[in-house]
Specification:
Length: 345
C-alpha cells in the first residue's frame, strides 16, 4: 500500500468515526431515576463520545504507553476486570483495589471505592496521575496527544479546534463513560413486560427484596452509599475504606456499595476481589460471625438463607446480566485506533 493511499484511508476512518449527528440521546428506561450528572455543563455529543472512546482505549494516557483505561475496565467484563483481584498498572505494579465496573455512571454522585472523587469529569485524573496505575501527568498526556495526527484531526472534528486541552480531554472521557448504560437484562425485560421470571427466579426476587434491596436498591441495584462489608482487614493492603478520605471514625472500613448488575461478567467480588464466586459472597453474609456482628447493630438485618434459598437468589441475580451491553460493538476497541497502532501516521 502506498503512503498516499494509507493516509487517505486513515483520514477516511477518522471521518467515518465522527460522521454521526452531533446530538447524542442518552437512552434509559422510564423506571430509572433522574440522572445525577449535570448535562448542562457537558451536553452529550456523538463526536465527543467517539473521541472519548478513542482516549479510553489508548495506552498513550500512561507514562510508558502500556496501560489504557480499558486495561482495567474491559468492555467484555462490563468495564470491570476478571484476570486478577487487584488492578495492575505500569511496570507490572499492583494496585490496592479491584477495578469497579463502569456503567450507569450518570446516576452516581461519587466515584472510586471510597468516594474520593465527587465529579465524573475529574475522575480520570486519579488513575492517570497515580504512580501505581498510569503514572502520568495531564500536561505530558496533552503533549503526546498533540503530536499525533489522529488526535489533531479528531479534536478538530469534535471541537472545531485542534488545540488539545485538559478540559476537552477529561470531558470527552466523561462523555464516553456516560454513554455506557446497561438496562437490557432479563430483569429489565420483565419490568417492560416483555417476558416473565421463571418460578425459581421469582423466588429469588422475593428473597432479594427481603434481604438485599436496602443497599442494592432497584432498579440500579445499588444505593451508591457507603457501607461496611464486614470483611476482615487484609494486613497487606491495610485498606480502611472511606475513612482515608473523610478521616471520620464512622467511615472506617466503609466502601461504596457496588451494583449487582452484570455480576457474571464483573467477578471477582468485593473491593479487594477476594471472592471469585457469588456463593462465596452469600456464604460471607450468612456466616455466623457476620450474624453476630449484625446483631450488635440495630440498623443491620441478619440474613438467614438456606442452601436452596441461596440457589434461588443467585438464579435471580443472573437475570441482571445484560449481554447486549457487554457485547455492544459501539463500546469496543475503535477500528481507527487499531489502524493508528499499526503504524499509519
Amino acid at each position: 500500500m502506498s503512503r498516499r493511499l494509507a493516509t487517505l484511508i486513515f483520514i477516511l476512518l477518522i471521518f467515518m468515526a465522527f460522521r454521526e449527528a452531533k446530538i447524542y440521546q442518552l437512552e434509559y428506561p422510564n423506571y430509572f431515576p433522574k440522572p445525577e450528572y449535570n448535562f448542562r455543563n457537558n451536553p452529550l455529543d456523538s463526536s465527543k463520545v467517539e473521541l472519548g472512546r478513542l482516549l479510553f482505549f489508548d495506552p498513550i494516557l500512561s507514562k510508558d504507553n502500556s496501560i489504557s483505561c480499558a486495561s482495567c475496565h474491559s468492555p467484555y467484563n462490563a468495564f470491570a476486570h476478571t484476570d486478577h483481584d487487584l488492578s495492575h498498572g505500569i511496570y507490572d505494579q499492583i494496585g490496592t483495589r479491584n477495578a469497579p465496573a463502569l456503567f450507569n455512571l450518570a446516576w452516581q454522585k461519587t466515584f472510586m471505592w471510597d468516594g474520593a472523587i465527587n465529579h465524573l469529569d475529574m475522575q480520570a485524573l486519579a488513575p492517570i496521575s497515580d504512580s501505581t496505575e498510569m503514572g502520568e501527568t495531564i500536561v505530558h498526556v496533552i503533549e503526546k496527544l498533540s503530536q499525533k495526527k489522529l488526535y489533531k484531526e479528531s479534536f478538530f472534528l469534535t471541537y472545531q479546534d485542534s488545540i488539545i486541552t485538559g478540559e476537552k480531554l477529561l470531558k470527552a472521557l466523561s462523555q464516553f463513560q456516560l454513554s455506557l448504560v446497561s438496562s437490557n437484562s432479563k430483569y429489565d425485560r420483565v419490568r417492560k413486560q416483555e417476558t416473565e421470571f421463571t418460578k425459581q427466579e421469582t423466588k429469588g426476587y422475593h428473597l432479594f427484596q427481603q434481604h438485599c434491596n436496602s443497599c442494592h436498591a432497584e432498579p440500579l441495584f445499588s444505593n451508591y452509599q457507603f457501607s461496611k462489608n464486614e470483611l476482615p482487614l487484609d494486613s497487606g493492603l491495610n485498606d480502611f475504606g472511606r475513612f482515608k478520605v473523610t478521616q471520620q471514625e464512622e467511615d472506617r472500613f466503609k466502601f461504596k456499595v457496588p451494583t449487582l448488575r452484570n455480576l457474571s461478567f464483573t467477578f471477582p467480588y468485593m473491593h479487594d476481589g477476594r471472592f471469585k464466586k457469588l456463593n462465596k459472597v452469600l456464604n460471607h453474609y450468612t456466616s455466623e460471625s457476620i450474624k453476630a456482628q449484625f446483631k450488635k447493630d440495630p440498623k443491620k438485618k441478619v440474613i438467614e438463607l438456606s442452601e436452596d434459598e441461596k440457589v434461588d437468589l443467585i438464579s435471580f441475580l443472573l437475570t441482571l446480566n445484560d449481554k447486549s451491553f457487554v457485547f455492544n460493538s459501539k463500546h469496543q476497541f475503535p477500528k481507527v485506533l487499531l489502524e493508528e497502532m499499526k503504524g499509519i501516521k
